[in-house]
Amino acid sequence: MDIPKVYDPDSFEKKWYAFWEEKGFFGAGDAQKDKAYSIVMPPPNVTGQLHMGHALDGTIQDILIRFRRMQGFDTLWQSGCDHAGIATQAKVDAALREEGTNRFALGRDKFLERVWQWKEKYGSRITKQQRSLGASCDWQRHRFTMDEGCSKAVREVFVRLYEEGLIYRGTRITNWCPSCHTAISDIEVEHKTEKGHLYHLRYAVEGTDEYIEIATTRPETMFGDTGIAVHPEDERYKNLVGKMAILPLVGRRIPIFADSYVDREFGTGAVKVTPAHDPNDFEMGKRHNLEQIIVINNDGTMAENMGKYAGLDRAACRKKLSEDLQKEGILLSIEEHEHAVGHCSRCDSTIEPLVSMQWFMKMDELAAPALKAAKDGELQFVPARFGKIYCNWLENIRDWCISRQLWWGHRIPAWYCDDCGKMSVSRTELDGCPHCGSKHIRQDEDVLDTWFSSALWPFETLGWPEKTPELEKFYPTDVLVTGYDIIFFWVARMVMLGLKFTGKLPFKYVFLHGLVRDSQGRKMSKSLGNGVDPLEIIDQYGADTLRFMLVTGNTPGNDMRFYIERVESARNFANKLWNASRFMLMNLEGFDKSFVPAEADYSLSDRWILARADIVGKSVTENLEKFELGEAARSIYEFIWNELCDWYIELSKASLYDKENERRRRTTQYVLRLVLERALLLLHPFMPFITEEIWQHIPHEGESIMYAAWPESLALSFDAALAQQQMGAIMETIKAIRNMRAEVNAAPKKRTEVFLKVADEKLAAVFTQNSTYLDSLACAQPVTLIDGEEKPENAMAAVIDGVEIYLPLAELIDVEKETARLEKELANLEGEIARLEKKLGNASFVAKAPAQIVEKEREKQSGYKEKCAAVKERLSYLAALSKK
Q1: Triad 173, 491, 163: Cα angle to 5°
Q2: Residue 451 predicted with pLDDT over 80
Q3: Pairing between strand 507-513 and 477-483?
Q4: Pairing between strand 244-246 and 189-205?
Q5: 3-class SS of residue 243
Q6: Per the count of CB atoms within 10 A, which of 244, 398, 422, 805 is most buried?
Q7: What's the angle, vertex CA 610, arms to CA 66 and CA 720, rounded to 5?
Q8: Residue 218: how many other CB atoms lie within 10 Å
Q9: Are 138 and 26 in contact (CB under 8 A)?
Q10: How confident is the model at residue 527 (pLDDT cuts 50, 70, 90)?
Q11: What are phi and psi of 184, to 5 degrees?
């Protein structure tokens, strides 16, 4: 039954994962279990590799699944991967460039063949990495957002929404990425504050000698200006409203009009209006029937209608145009200006607002029930503060641009007839026009936004639109675990479409975790070179260590910092558990599974550890149910490290080594095995590998700890509160004695008499009956109880609740030896003080050294002086002691 001397996770982690998978222990769909519990994994990109965010996300989900599995639920953790339109296409594009070709040379069909080949080659990489973390997903049900079932669901949703008028095609201004060459949605734009300039230009007012001065951050778009707007209550421009201005360098007449959108305090209070290249201008243009003139191409260069500026990059055009405007006397001034600039969240390129034909989803009607669900408490966020962010976004939602100018993805199921000109949307592939029968039809070139298919993930993976047994049993899912950074991208959209197509919320709880940052609080990124590879941590320390580090000290919704010291601390915990288990296994000789102690057999320490094990079990369960995983992990850590290892095991040694009292020995074996197994069960969701390895070696029932029953109440027959109170008093007394011994630098194994004055008679009896505990853990022998005014002379004293503790010093320390040691320490301290006084008395040092260095030296000096005073006080005490 023994386990190896050294904790080596590499020797058993892969072994146990293979065992679990071969046995089918991760599988869902047990017809004998009525209770179901399900989680859908946020599908990682098929391009992805495991990073710390995935590791945290996966650890949290696996903890919840393993917990519920042990509680007897039929658990489904639905795994899968996302096709990741832009990211995957970019990977294959890069591979083609290395081959000296591109997707346009290949053509769409050949390019898609290459992407599928790439997916087959690299798509399983991240699932293998998730296995190394211990993820207990039902891999047999693994899904891909572009597999046959998901593709069918996507088409069904698209067609139904189109038929209801909730999906439409139209010309709108969108966020265009010149690098990715596609439109992106509002929430895929990251706004960054940048230092730019405000250009003051003057436009001539037609038929007058007057000019109107406008301020703009983007002079290069002026060729697309079709109006000038002022605020209706701005007295400066009332006389110009209704007149026409002349566009510089072009000569085009543009109207001057009033619109309450204009901020009178910004710039000059007059703004040029470019409806084709600014979302706010686009809305003003609609209100005032302004023409839309596109002057920037899809690749970010200036359009052909820009004359000599055509083909220039936006930045180059801005520079050249500014020079020309200055020569013409049109550019009056340039001032420094900080403003928010939109960037593509995928490639960081500056976004170009462009008017283009796109597909959109109407959101108001879909958002209303999703908003109501949160406000009514049907949908709950953990932590709750994120519910307000979710609601605020839904209350201000805009239509979603769902089309992307890519080749990889769900192609929009719309066909256009070249003969009759009509469009058809269909669930199935069309080979002819349903309107006129013509064969001259072509499918829309665009694909759907990746988040469209991801929004259906909770129900499409369970077989929807078919009514499958899985959909019936596991939908709605129980909780969604994900990062707070994709509330809008994914969470809100899943809620909206889940309610729309199933009539039910896709999950009741949304458990949001934060980001894993570096030790300085920075986001991990390739550019900073501060990323930490979880696979390297697993190779060096083991998956259990990484998992436990990620979950301890972590609270829902808050970012956490990665410190290697915390990894080492988690490894030390695993080591402590390993050694404690090894100790128990080495002391199970003659263990009798049928032996059950009578209540009278239990010692105080037995009753105490059983009471603590019962309370900790309840605490871990309650915290897991509240999604306080960090607190649950802390509870079991404290119990195993402090109470089981540092106290109970130490106190159990005397009984285990006692060959004379067999019943006492068997009782200790019984309690130790029971408590250790209970601790392993509580710890299993957090550290699955080490708990399985140890559990398989101790006396147990069942094939795997994965399916062992979750600990319930121990139903103790004795007074658990009293046992904790009594043991608590003994433990506090032992700590006080240890502290006093440390103060006088007593030899570790030197025994000394201890006197106790205990106010309560019953408690005094407890000390009398259990004085061996003080001997074992505090070298206190004998322990003498005193009463009245009696106090030993020349003794150190400490007081805890209800107990006065006296520690005589005469036999505890060698006064002469301790005096010599302290005198040597005093000489060293006085030397350091003199050195620092000289250094800090040097005016040149104080003047030239950095302030923090000077302050640090002063702090050192103060610290040495405090130590010096303490040593002198101790020497005085020893001098008085020697006279007696």
Answers
A1: 55
A2: yes
A3: parallel
A4: antiparallel
A5: coil
A6: 805
A7: 120
A8: 18
A9: yes
A10: low
A11: -135, 160
